[in-house]
Amino acid sequence: xxxxxxxxxxxxxxxxxxxxxxxxxxxxxxxxxxxxxxxxxxxxxxxxxxxxxxxxxxxxxxxxxxxxxxxxxxxxxxxxxxxxxxxxxxxxxxxxxxxxxxxxxxxxxxxxxxxxxxxxxxxxxxxxxxxxxxxxxxxxxxxxxxxxxxxxxxxxxxxxxxxxxxxxxxxxxxxxxxxxxxxxxxxxxxxxxxxxxxxxxxxxxx
Length: 206
What we know:
By secondary structure, the protein is α/β, with parallel strands linked by helices.
């Protein structure tokens, strides 16, 4: 499939051939959901922790005699039934990550790219470069183009000045081709690929 390319000033920059195997698939929500869930679970710290009855700071002395009180039988105040006692079966530090095959992860990325192309939210630009790292200049260009919540994916290397200028603009992310991932693609309204980014992604996903 063919797609028109533009320059950062909005002028035409020819056209680009996009692989149907990567940009022409029928997007499947179940595949995208599995890959996003895998990404988010791997990113979760898993450092949640509660104190058990062996870790709370009350005395371990028996609070009253076993028989004759007319009340329930208790040992010490660390029991979960008491306020500020230990928590029973609470969360402990663990990994939330799970495995997903490389083949499936690649498939998810293909479907994410296809989803953006199908929705008309894919833009191809010539290059993403700037002579000076001026945030104000880049912000004006992006406003003219109408890009608000946008992910820009370049080739193997991102232009340093462009990345620095974009770093302070809310809603704009810039990634090299190896950093392209399903979650970041789907969470932004517009996906912008440079010509070098298209070549790198097609080489990575074939």
